[in-house]
């Protein structure tokens, strides 16, 4: 193995820069929130709620602009038969940020939540919050693992460094500065990382375009280059329209219920700022995707026989997923490709650190503190967060070394976030009458309908064959192996999400009617969700509500229990003054 020393030096310099910025951010904000009496654990999770417009816009954009985003966009544009028409991530995630800003950012931030799971535990109880933690955790962990795996593959292509070594080193750096500074380190390093992504890729594009082996991308956009490479604009065939729409809805709506998004929303200095940051990030997602689209188009317009890569194109070597680093290495001068490599590394780390912090925040607060140790001190919660940052980071690193398998796990877990968490978020924020029975039913229905459709990347066969299913032949060009996969053309992911939503509403109203009408005795309310007035579960709920924001009359009638420790667990009055009068959920509106 011949390690390219120049590339290795460039990566070391870049990693040192990121590490120093992360440590500096932690030192700069070490006393943030102290004067206001904010807990240290909350400062780590949401940065003291004082993230400004400039830093906030960058870190919100970094929610989705990562290694998978820029590599995946280039790959879809390059792939024959797909093209730009199937590169849905830029517009899908941009619209998810717009919708998140319009409908979700304001109620979440104005109520002073600390994590995405807070409203679920407030309304459905701690046990249901624990169940919803599972798909949320899977999504964050497998996302981190997938992008770390992508980074390892990229480094191995350009500088011939061992994949395992590059993954481990990158993860350790991200874990370290996240441990030290929490969200502040994540946010400030996001600023540097997005600058590197933007400059690194844009510097590379002109050199790649001017390479003699590259045809005019304006012509290849609509004209087939050769028998193996179709026009890179791509098209959507009639049988695939519903599948295309299903995937787009998954990105647009399924991109909302993620802790990586809401930790930025909840760290904003006000609810209005949270909305503005979402809109700015949507614009940033589109801008950051442009160089990736061009690099994918360049890959589709290249006569690889004229390059050092060789006559066999990347697709026929099963390396389509690495088209971006391949273009950087074989179509750009060495010093430019190394600069672009820094951009790819930046993209990966900007996503990995925030996902690890998100997972540890949800565990420390919603599982450890609210479900098991309500009397835990702030110092104890901080230590739990630090331990889980390290543990989850180590787990993500280990899963990243599984290479192909981790992508299948990521696809399935992101689908479960869309199918299970998104409809429940709609219910918990906008439909007051839903309860734990409906939530459990929605969870079960969504899980069965989605898993029943199978997952080709995991070689998980379906046990539900939706209308329009077909058998697709997949040929592995390197090994010459042929796989036969079930392709579900029916939009079953979105159908599963809608079924989950409707089952939540239907079963909630059904059990509410059964218990309140006396058809079912109160003793059968084993989830304590409708009429059980003295259960420990409901009593715990009263400690999670600030009466100035959500009145107890909005929940099941209960006898309030005073709690010094958790009286303000979900809300802080000082963060809500801006929204107090405008919130439709405020008691003042109810009493009018």
Automatic annotation (TrEMBL):
Main location: membrane
Chain residue ranges for the region called Disordered: 573-592
Superkingdom of the organism of origin: Eukaryota
Entry keyword Lipid biosynthesis: no
UniProt KW keywords: Glycoprotein, Ion transport, Membrane, Neurotransmitter biosynthesis, Sodium, Sodium transport, Symport, Transmembrane, Transmembrane helix, Transport
Keyword field contains Hydrolase: no
Subcellular location: Presynaptic cell membrane
A UniProt-annotated Pfam family: SSF
The protein, known as: High affinity choline transporter 1
